[in-house]
Amino acid sequence: MTDFDLIRLYLEKQDEMVLRTLLERYLQLGFAIIYRIVGDKEEAEDILQEALIKVVNGLKTFKMESSFKTWFGKICYHEGINQYKRRKPLVSLEDVAYELHDSHRVDDEVETEMEKAVIWSCVEELDPKYRTVLLSFYQNELSIKEIAEMMNTNENTIKTHLSRAKSQLKQQLATRSISSL
Length: 181
Prior knowledge:
It is a single chain. Helices cover 75% and strands 0% of the residues. It has 181 residues and is mainly alpha-helical.
């Protein structure tokens, strides 16, 4: 069944299993979007629950002109951004990388993990809109069009944000002597 079929069926019969089927298709996407904004698993799970409530409450007014996936992602994105604006990051990955380095157990595996931590730290330092575009495109494999709909902007703006995100990330990595990109 398509997303639209499931929405119609849920609205007609209020069948919780139909709703669950629909939402389970996009839970990972929603979590990924929110997690990449707030950077904390438990907080992302809490925000996802809030987003799910908004999605369920909004199904009656959902216009089936755009994809449910994009609409769902947009709600998750806005919930994540709202929470991000209300607080500061809990722990930076750069601090974690420093602690790993300081432990004097630096072998190949630890060095690789440190590089990953530095890369993620650089990603975390990006402006939230750039970070969201970058991760939505590369990690969540959303199209430029889907990201534009999710962020309520045009495709050219998303292309510009993606280009700037990559450029800023490369600059940050270059200053930290990591050339993974």
